[in-house]
Design goal:
The chain has about 220 residues and is α/β, with parallel strands linked by helices. About 25% of the residues lie in helices and about 25% in strands. The model has no long low-confidence stretch (mean pLDDT about 90).
Length: about 220
């Protein structure tokens, strides 16, 4: 059984359009309105795609600097999960990110496989870090796949190709548990330590969240990835 978040799901409201291009989005029928995402996020991401959504705007910044308030970590993880899932589908996501100024300078690189935000706050050189994020971003930068009897992650966030392959079933089970966030204490400590060491999991307050995505749209032949 998954140990993912069991607290009440908070509704996430987004604006959605049927096209990537802002000018095309002004045409009749392109604006889908403000949509409330109140169900499990994997299902909501599928629903957005099936509605024809190709551009999404999150109204509030994802705040990783102020996680002390009740529910703040859950809200941040839910919004990050949407950005991750839509990035995997090559949907244009307009979002803003606030990092803790006390976090390591390369924290943004941990998230650099996600579509770059419109605004980055927190780092001392936020404008420069955001520019580097945009310049270096491409689809399939950090992904995972389930093979016959193994799990493999392919990670290019740090400039080179890094592979992480595991055959033990507890690794797959932990990925499933952390896909949409779970308390760090709820998953095997040794497996979590391995994932944290490879920077494949982000700690958000007391939660742990799985960073790589399972790509839904290949930019080239799979063998080249």
């Amino acid at each position: 059984m998954s140990t993912a978040l069991t607290t009440a799901i908070e509704t996430l409201t987004v604006a959605a359009w049927r096209d990537y291009d802002p000018e095309a989005c002004t045409l009749p029928g392109m604006y889908l309105g403000e949509l409330e995402l109140a169900g499990p996020l994997a299902e909501e991401s599928d629903r957005l795609w099936e509605l024809g959504t190709r551009r999404v705007r999150l109204p509030e910044p994802i705040d990783l600097a102020g996680l002390e308030a009740p529910g703040a970590a859950e809200r941040a993880v839910r919004a990050l999960s949407l950005v991750r899932d839509l990035t995997a589908r090559a949907v244009l996501v307009e979002w803003k990110l606030r990092l803790d100024p006390a976090a390591p300078d390369d924290t943004w690189r941990t998230l650099s496989h996600l579509q770059p935000p419109q605004l980055l706050e927190g780092p001392a050189d936020a404008a420069g870090e955001l520019r580097r994020w945009r310049d270096g971003h491409y689809l399939c930068k950090c992904l995972w796949r389930q093979g016959p009897g193994f799990v493999q992650i392919r990670d290019r966030r740090w400039g080179d190709l890094r592979r992480f392959t595991a055959e033990e079933p507890e690794y797959r089970e932990t990925i499933e548990s952390l896909a949409y966030g779970a308390p760090s204490a709820s998953v095997p400590g040794a497996v979590l330590a391995d994932f944290l060491g490879e920077r494949l999991v982000l700690e958000v307050g007391e939660l742990a969240w799985w960073l790589p995505y399972r790509v839904n749209r290949w930019i080239q032949e799979a063998m080249a990835i």
